[in-house]
Amino acid sequence: MENNSETILEMDNICKSFPGVKALNNVSIKFKKRTVHTLMGENGAGKSTLMKVLSGIYQMDSGTMRLRGEDVIFQTPASALNHGIAMVHQELSPIVDLSVAENMFVGREPVLFKLPVINRKEMNKKANALFEEIGIKIDPKRRMGDLSVAEMQMVEIAKAISYDAEILILDEPTSAISDAEVSVLFKIIRNYTQKNKAVIYISHKMEEIFQISDEITVLRDGEFIGTNPASDVSEKELIKMMVGRNLNEIFPKTETKIGDVSLRVENLSLSGKFSNISFEARRGEILGIAGLMGAGRSELVESIFGVHPPESGSLYINGKEVKIRSPEDAIDLGMALITEDRKLTGLNLKDSVKNNVSIVFLKKLARAFSVVDKGREVSSVEELIKKLSIKTPSRNTNVSSLSGGNQQKVVIAKWLLSDPNILILDEPTRGIDVGAKAEVHKLMNQFTEEGKTVIMISSEMPEIMGMSDRLLVLSEGKLTGHFQRSEFDQEKILACAMNHIEKESN
Amino acid sequence: GAQDETSNDQITIGVTYQNMQNEFILSIQDGLRAKAEELGVKVIEQDGQGSAEKQISQVENFIIQEVDAIVLNPFDKDGCAPALDKAVAAGIPVIVVNAMVSNIEKANAYVGSEDVVAGEMEAQYIADLLGGKGNVAIIHGPNGHSAEIQRTIGNKNVLGKYPDIKILAEQTANWSRIEALNLVENWLTSGMELNAILGQNDEMALGAYKAIEAAGKQNDIFVIGIDAIPDALQSVEDGKLVATVFQDARGQGAGAVELAYKVANGESIPDLLNIPFILVTKENLAEFK
Amino acid sequence: MTAILKNIFNISNKKLLKDYGLVLAFMGICLVLSILSPSFIKPANLLNILRQTSINGILAVGMTFVIITGGIDLSVGSITAVAAVVASSFAHPGEHSIVFVIFSGLGVGLLLGFINGLFIAKAKLAPFIATLGMMTIARGMALVYTSGRPVINLSDQYNYIGGGYIGGIPVPVYIYGLVVIISFFVLRFTVFGRRVYAVGGNELSAKYSGIKTSNIKTLVYMISGMLSGLAGIVLSSRVMSGNPSAGTSYELDAIAAVVIGGTSMTGGVGTIFGTVIGALMIGVINNGLDLLNVSSYFQQIVKGSIIIFAVLMDKQANSKD
Amino acid sequence: MTAILKNIFNISNKKLLKDYGLVLAFMGICLVLSILSPSFIKPANLLNILRQTSINGILAVGMTFVIITGGIDLSVGSITAVAAVVASSFAHPGEHSIVFVIFSGLGVGLLLGFINGLFIAKAKLAPFIATLGMMTIARGMALVYTSGRPVINLSDQYNYIGGGYIGGIPVPVYIYGLVVIISFFVLRFTVFGRRVYAVGGNELSAKYSGIKTSNIKTLVYMISGMLSGLAGIVLSSRVMSGNPSAGTSYELDAIAAVVIGGTSMTGGVGTIFGTVIGALMIGVINNGLDLLNVSSYFQQIVKGSIIIFAVLMDKQANSKD
Ligand SMILES: Nc1ncnc2c1ncn2[C@@H]1O[C@H](COP(=O)(O)OP(=O)(O)OP(=O)(O)O)[C@@H](O)[C@H]1O
Ligand SMILES: Nc1ncnc2c1ncn2[C@@H]1O[C@H](COP(=O)(O)OP(=O)(O)OP(=O)(O)O)[C@@H](O)[C@H]1O
Ligand SMILES: [Mg+2]
Ligand SMILES: [Mg+2]
């Protein structure tokens, strides 16, 4: 590798501050052609910021960037694109009312006869060709807003690739896609570097990183810590570089006493989403729900939580039948749901950390005239900020200026504050760093130790197998598997998850 | 069943009023309706809502509905001229009532008088009260509206003849009492020494008076309005407004529909039915209440 | 009824389907009016409706561009007035060529729209504030320009624009039709048109894709300004006078037409077709209620209710799919 | 200047800082007016300004609630008129107790606001459409209720609400002050207030957090309706007549006050304090231009420019931090 890869981009002493935060402090990295260079670091370490500086979204305060030996400054995303730098952003930003193809070619639409008139045929053809080449199956004429999150992510990736840029930046591209799609993506990335190009990759998922990276750079608190060839470092060393200390067990499952049934679900159905789901969850237990992307797991828990109440079936909490018609009912019954899409359903991006964390809890903070007890509010929020080590200049900072992972922690904090008995987590560790992940897992354990119930959806096999006491598998809206911890076996679980798909293909 | 449009035996008259959110216009309507009932004609009434363009559209609709005659109460002297043109082109007789259009010669008759006269009348009364000397302010209607333009011309025709009368301030209050009230409050606190205020309608005059009363200057400043709405008549009676200008709205409405009826029946009519303005003061108030 | 119409309009045609609730509501209103008043469906009346709709229709087209980008233009009524007085002031008989007169009106509209665009796209003012300011300023300019007096004595050529006929059809109807066709094409088939949606749908994403979003935004306000200028020409030639108080509160009707037509105030979504239906619906209601001789007070109650009802019906139809 | 003020207002006080650009602009305008017109700072004139601001100020407070949820209420002016005529119709001397009269005005406002709320929160109509419909309908109702004629001959007690003084200060100023204080408190310190922000910031997330978003939305329109009712009472008692055409286009001034005050039209952000400054700014400009006797044509140009300039200055100040 080393010999035939020359440096294409040097970032030198890059500094960038936001009000109250020094996001980047003298960061210097070299990126080479034919190389997948991974950036790692805790939430808020500055990875996304560095890439936004590179792609012309932010302007650095000081430092230099040399592209192919020439000094460059990108004032706009357009100029970075023109210099051959394309980026897939951490936060999805689809234009929902345009078609898939229109989304891909926005800003460089193919035209008819050099007139400013769009050549739709050509555009769809190009999109199709690209999709075929990289192996994804999406109709370019579909409306972007009708795609699933995973499909949107694949379109964004395809879009970035279609620029045929010299440097392709992927900021946590796998946080919303499943293993099958990840392997497609990795194939794409390999092909890409073959073409004498550079890929910069950001992810928190260790297995992935070792699978795909050639070089790994670690950032911590906006500082450059070190660059190493992937083959020269171990997971342990990386974690140490990231968090500055040793972190042993990643999935520290503690044994708890499993008690009575706290939640029982009988024959729950919602047409088009899931049908005839029955299961129970017990006190002190972590119940995992596995399945492929789009299996209906999110729909199921949202339904239980009253967001889209089920059409038929019944729910029992502590043996008593309950009717949950709205999230409010669910919360009153001691449930909490940490949703999978923080931007869409988890956060009020226009408000502060404090107000986001306390919104569910407010009801309990009300004094006479429903005035909020500010003192208690502040102290509880501060406590959680500490407990989850949320990296924020203050509790009054707007959540929108937090890094993606820290935003996720805010969502978790909000639901912990509501002090639930049944905690449902939908992809709770998506986009959060190893330290925080361990923190979340510890919290889940604490929870069960107190005799409460945890239900967790995760698409990460190691996580769900590591943390669950029992595991349900969903496939196309049907329960297809049920495993005790002692029976966990990745292959069997996957087989159940693909149950229906296999039947179809046979 | 009530919509059998233009049955042959009954005469149908289309009426477009300039703006039915104006109390004065409602009085024209009262007179017109009463007379129409007496004559047994059917009237189709439309509200121009303060827009010449709308009134043109309404006349176009009348043409489609094949009315026998049109009564036009124009909002805009110039802007409503095409409405008259269109009706004439369609061979439908038109009676213009209460306000002028610039092509009035094409109409079959005009009922009313010109707003300029009302402006002159109120200014003359104030000039006389002041003995040809003093400071006045004028509160205008909405800028650019026909009645505002003509009443302003009338106001200035008279005031221009008195070199010792100074117009200290002019401002619009958009026919609105609250706007006039705010405006005069502001004038008075600015220390403006006024002897009289001319409101181009009664609503604004009443608003002005309220501000004057609150400032305790009711004995120093004369206020006058136009239209003789009930509230203004009461105010004149109470010795608050010094006068208002009465226009026989009911008479105009009745006159207009009567002429329209006649012309629709092929009778000949005069081309001018002058219904003059009358100044209403405490002395002659009784006739108008 | 709904079911039958679903069969007639082939359901697979998504685009049509999305608008069909509105079209259905519109057709329902027309049907009711035809039954209640025989004059309603006379060809002459239908032409009347088209002519009466043309001014609001033209403004609504410009407003559609603006609203799709997520903005709003409150200044259209006042710009209409400025263009009306400026064009009129050059339109006295025998003074200037009609081409010059028309360009003066369009030009002044374009210029004021450009200023709106600068404040919004470059100075990053909220569109509501920038155009509210312009609404007041432009009205003042029209008044100052004319000293508050309407501009009269306009040439016959000029009057032809608002009052003439070609083959029995009023000229404003042709103008409106042309505006609709061009805008439809621009919005649907050109690069610029798609970028308008992109900016409104997700400004950040558009920016990251290298689009100069501020240019797109400036352009939509220029379009809206120019079309307001056109509306001012048509209006002043229709009433044969350039009145500085013309166009007051036209912005509300224009916005209403756009929103009734299914364009979302938050941007990113909308069609010219919907806006045309929205404008026609307002025109038909105004015309129909006048024909029925509904008292103007009740007219307002009825008109407000119909608008709410029509949009509700549209929602119903759409949510069922 | 900016630098000095930054030092005076301790920068660490974030809340103040966020609004200080606006406050600075406001103070600048006041300063200029004091220099140009010595009458401006007379206490009597300042009271004038407060009194003249009170009606728009009250409407703007209600509008703030609505806009923070991401909505808009175009019907405030018409509801003002309905409440004005209804309350006035009960306020003839010696007919009903003043308490009854007041409740009738507030009640009718509340009711109409509730209907707005139903259409928006339950039937999921776009706020623009629902309240545009209500704007037209309520105006029609006011006209029908009075047959288009103002309601006159009101009791002295009623007159006291808009025209009275307590300790030399006009009663409407107390009313406005009370409305401001209560709303400030509600929005800032109560659970309901916080939920208003949550709904406007991200409705979906609010829903998932157990907030009955449709209740919150209904409530804000009820608040806006009730405050419009209050404005109608103050207005009609101030001019001693309940005019069905009162309040026309008041919605624009109310929205302007809110937006000048820094509340975002997209919801989730805003303060009562900002709205008060916004309303006062409009009041001060209107008053100052009258004092200076600026010609009414130029007044509009100046007023529009000042609003744009003030908001620009606010943006400048904020972006520098
Ligand atoms: N627009 C902004 N305004 C203010 N602060 C910001 C902004 N963007 C990022 N920051 C801050 O800069 C720091 C670095 O953030 P960045 O998004 O680069 O982190 P990251 O390494 O990508 O983290 P994650 O893994 O969570 O995505 C964080 O403290 C964040 O709060
Ligand atoms: N709001 C929606 N509108 C339309 N379809 C939806 C919506 N939400 C989910 N779906 C579809 O419903 C199916 C189930 O989705 P769901 O999100 O519940 O799956 P999941 O098992 O949780 O997978 P993921 O890991 O992607 O969250 C998918 O096909 C998805 O595309
Ligand atoms: Mg990041
Ligand atoms: Mg899911």
Q: Which keywords apply here?
A:
heterotetramer, B: 289 residues, alpha/beta, six-stranded parallel sheet, six-stranded mixed sheet, 12 strands, 41% helix, elongated, C: 321 residues, mainly alpha, two-stranded antiparallel ribbon, globular, disordered N terminus, binds adenosine-5'-triphosphate, binds magnesium ion
Question: Explain this structure to me?
Answer:
The complex is a heterotetramer, with one copy of chain A (506 residues), one copy of chain B (289 residues) and two copies of chain C (321 residues). Chain A is of the alpha/beta class and 506 residues long. Chain A has 19 helices and 20 strands. In chain A, the strands form four sheets. Chain A has a six-stranded mixed sheet with strand order 6-7-8-3-9-10, with helices on both faces. A six-stranded mixed sheet of chain A has the order 16-17-18-13-19-20, sandwiched between helices. In chain A, strands 2-1-4-5 form a four-stranded antiparallel sheet, covered by helices on one side. In chain A, a hairpin with a 2-residue loop joins strand 14 and strand 15. In chain A, helix 14 packs across helix 15. The relative contact order of chain A is 0.12. Chain B has nine helices and twelve strands. In chain B, the strands form two sheets. In chain B, strands 2-1-3-4-5-11 form a six-stranded parallel sheet, with helices on both faces. Chain B has a six-stranded mixed sheet with strand order 7-6-8-9-10-12, sandwiched between helices. The N terminus of chain B is likely disordered. In chain C, strand 1 and strand 2 form a beta hairpin. Chain C has a two-stranded antiparallel sheet. In chain C, helix 7 packs across helix 11. The N terminus of chain C is likely disordered. Chains C and D meet through helix 6, helix 12 and helix 14 of C and helix 6, helix 12 and helix 14 of D. The structure holds adenosine-5'-triphosphate (2 copies) and magnesium ion (2 copies). The site of one adenosine-5'-triphosphate has 14 residues of chain A, from helix 5 and helix 9.
